[in-house]
From TrEMBL:
InterPro entries noted in UniProt: NTF2-like_dom_sf (IPR032710), SnoaL-like (IPR037401)
Name assigned to this protein: SnoaL-like domain-containing protein
Organism: Thermomonospora echinospora
Residue ranges constituting the SnoaL-like domain according to the UniProt record: 11-115
Pfam families associated with the record: SnoaL_2
Amino acid sequence: MEQDAAHDRAVDAFLAAANTGDPQERDRLLSRALTADVVFWGPLGRGVGRKAVAEFITEVVRSHPSGPCRMVRTTRVDAPDEWARFGWRYEDAAGRVLLSGTDVVHVTADGDIDEMIVFAGALT
């Protein structure tokens, strides 16, 4: 159960970072969620480090044409050992779902995400 709480904390800190418009708060939250050398596989390719994740959030998540949008966790964090997955949705200010998906993360013994793979959209 302690492991599950660590996975939840890391995932929820990442989502909070994605949802804040304050770059300093984003950096603080990402430092709670991610290792400094996190490997991030997103829809635009591979990035390494918290800065790459912060730039993805700034350029893609926070800059949507629909205006301020937010990431919402839609499932529990399913965590068999150090790997975890969770469902999410990206919604506009009115709550309209713009995109949904599943992320897979690897969590260290310290409770930090050191690898994240984003799967956006439904499998057909």
